[in-house]
Amino acid sequence: MTKAEKIAGISRILDDLYPTVPIPLDHTDPYTLLVAVLLSAQCTDVRVNQVTPSLWAVTDRPEVMKTLPVEEIREIIRPCGLSPSKSAAIKELSRIIDEEHGGVVPQDWAALEALPGVGHKTASVVMSQAFGVPAFPVDTHIHRLAYRWALSTGKNVVRTEADLKRAFPRESWNKLHLQIIFFGREYCPARGHRMTDCPICSVYGRRSLLKLENK
Fold this sequence. Notes:
- This protein is mainly alpha-helical.
- The protein has helices at residues 3-17, 30-39, 45-58, 62-65, 70-77, 83-100, 109-113, 120-129, 140-148, 157-167, 173-186, 201-204, 207-213.
- Helix 1 packs across helix 11 and helix 9 crosses helix 10.
- The chain starts with a helix and ends with a helix.
């Protein structure tokens, strides 16, 4: 099997299972998406979606968020974990967006990644899902599956992102990264997973892992 055949096969399975993919974090605009993605660090999307309505009930605008005491933000987002650092980041990035970007989330990689609490992965999610810019955010699900499917070495997320961008067409990235996330949660979890029962791993999985499972 060639690499092109593998890529085509994986894409076909994902398209069949997930012809449309909703953005898992509830939001109304780039700013609320940015805050929700920041909150999702080491927290489930389900929990974030349970917490953000309470935050938006106070404000969903950076010009107001920057004026809130950090303790108030922290108390609201506490269930998401890491609330001291996340609340400080939300307050400060709101100030920067309001005062330096006219109250609008910048549609710019460097400006996004310069915001407090915003790394490359968070910026990638915002650029792809809010602005439609081709990007391939790599979370733990994607990193794990790329290794299982022998699409990347699994050494680090930077390498995984580069490998996946080389493997798949640029126009597919924004939809594909969501498809892989949904597939990982439903069919290819971290624990209790049997590759031989998986729609993709059973056909396109890393041979060494399949052999180890079949011993």
